[in-house]
Amino acid sequence: MTDTTPLILPELADEVDLRLARLLPMMREAGMDAMLIATNANIYYASGRFFRGYVYLAADGRKIYFVVRPNNFTPAPGIVEIRKPELIPAAVAEAGLPAPTRLGLELGQLPYNDALRLMRLWPDAEVDDSLPMLRQGRRVKTPLEIGMMREDGVHHVEVYRKIPALYVKDMTDIEFQIEIERVLRREGCLGFLRVAGNLMEINMGSVVAGDNADAPGPYEFTMGGRGVSPALPCGACGAIMKPGQTVMVDVNGCFNGYQTDMTRVWSIGEPPAIALRAHECSIRILRELERATVPGTEVREMYARAMAIVEEEGLREYFMGHRQQAGFIGHGIGIELNEGPAITPKSRDVVEAGMTLAIEPKFVIPGVGAVGVENTYVAREEGLENLTPAPEKMGVLS
Questions:
Q1: Is the pTM of this model over 0.90?
Q2: Please, what is the Cα angle at 331 between 328 and 333, to 5 degrees?
Q3: 187-215: b (≥16 Cβ within 10 Å) or e
Q4: 226: pLDDT confidence band, cut at 50, 70 and 90?
Q5: Which of 109, 197, 296, 369 could form a disulfide with 246 if both were Cys (CB 3.0 to 4.6 A apart)?
């Protein structure tokens, strides 16, 4: 007999209800009487685990979990095993729920054919894109989610503590990254991270040294890097790391399905004065934003405060890239690496208590490399709380 397990773990039942309750007012305001959740990150958010299937959420709070795979969940009310989505409407009716007249689907992420198939389940229903609503709901974390990210931060910091001992003279950047990844996995990292958007891809993180930090890339990351293959042009490129260069390490912190994001920098030998000055500028920006960012702060004001410090230091030409500059200084983070809000000069978002943000004011110095610090924070009434409190001063690899 096959062992079974509850789909919703008993200790997560109230937690899942708390998360989904954030969506209900938004659904009702939009006139949406149901949404059908079908994408990986949102299924995990709506259940506390990932399975292949769908979550049907009615605007009155009732929900049904439709499971395609695996088939070892304990039978329970509200859990329906199906072979195909065409079985969903009958199960919804059998549960006593009316057919939706206005249905939410994650149109901004679903493959076209999948979206068409789900739209045909209730052909008379109007269909709205529920993806922005789901992403909005996920921005503010519950205490349990913050606790998971805090746990991530503890492991993440421990990995970074061990990084200097991994360096060997004349090793390549990719050899260095492989050693870091080994330590990450031994610390318990799951070895993958979810990113939002079809144009975003990444491996376990990025290590960039010297001029490779100035190589433009196709992705929406602060740093580019040529990578080791045109199949994934990002990060370490296989070059030997040399004296006078900086080495920026920005690697994965996913230990439990949630993530932290952290960047630290080391130099090989003595770094040039301008690299040290830019690095200290990054730390100064973080201290200012930690103090000034409270619930109600406009996100664009965060960007403006950072830029004012950069201008005062005369470092604008190096800020957030050199040959190719990023138009943001941070982003939301959680189940996906790049959640909202993006910290940009045109953002209309406002910081809320419980938001988790990765803030990364970075610089690229031609001929030297990238410098700067990134931390993951949770927004509190008194300011930003750092979940990745590792030493920030530029270290030396020897």
A1: yes
A2: 165
A3: eebeeebbbbeeeeebbbbbbbbbbbbbb
A4: very high
A5: 369
